[in-house]
Amino acid sequence: MGPRRLHFSVPSDGVAVGADLIFSVNELKVSREAALANARKIARGRLTEVLTDLEEMAGVVRFNEVNTASPSEEDRNEIEAYLAECVETVYDYGRRRDCGLLMIDGDRKFAITAGMSWGDEPTDAYESFNVCEILGLTEKEWPDHASQGE
């Protein structure tokens, strides 16, 4: 889905100043453990599309040097640790000031992070939420072969 933006113009001393309210939402359809398993499957699977999506859709460039045709075990471990950290951030919504929980239709859980942005990231959790949303880590339990492109 990508980041969502709401634009507000706030007059300040007669001069319009704009900022965006930016938020990212993840529906928590699977347990934390299942989302972490999804992160492992991504890190152990084909990485080309995943790393391209992370760069193009979330602005994550820390893995640009990874040889996606033949990633090292160290690279895979680093990617897995990063994705696991993102999952933990989303599922820790109740322990953070910049996150919260939305309940929709009575029983559907959504973790949310939101804040004002003037071109920067609106919250410390925003990148992690965006990564989990883009990769669908919290939406379903993936079969082992799904990350292998079969």
How would you summarize the topology of this molecule?
Blueprint: E1 4-12, E2 15-27, H1 32-44, H2 48-58, H3 73-91, E3 99-104, E4 108-117, H4 126-135
Antiparallel strand pairs: 1-2, 2-4, 3-4
Helix pairs in contact: 1-3, 2-4, 3-4
Strand order of the largest sheet: 1-2-4-3
What is the general shape? globular
Order of helices and strands: EEHHHEEH
CA radius of gyration is 17 Å
Can you give me a brief rundown of this structure?
With 150 residues, the protein is of the alpha+beta class. The chain is built from 4 helices and 4 strands.
Annotation keywords:
150 residues, alpha+beta, 4 helices, 4 strands, 35% helix
Account of the 3D structure:
Strands 1-2-4-3 form a four-stranded antiparallel beta sheet. It has four helices and four strands. α1 packs antiparallel against α3, α2 crosses α4 and α3 (73-91) crosses α4 (126-135). The relative contact order is 0.24. By secondary structure, it is α+β, with helices and mostly antiparallel strands.
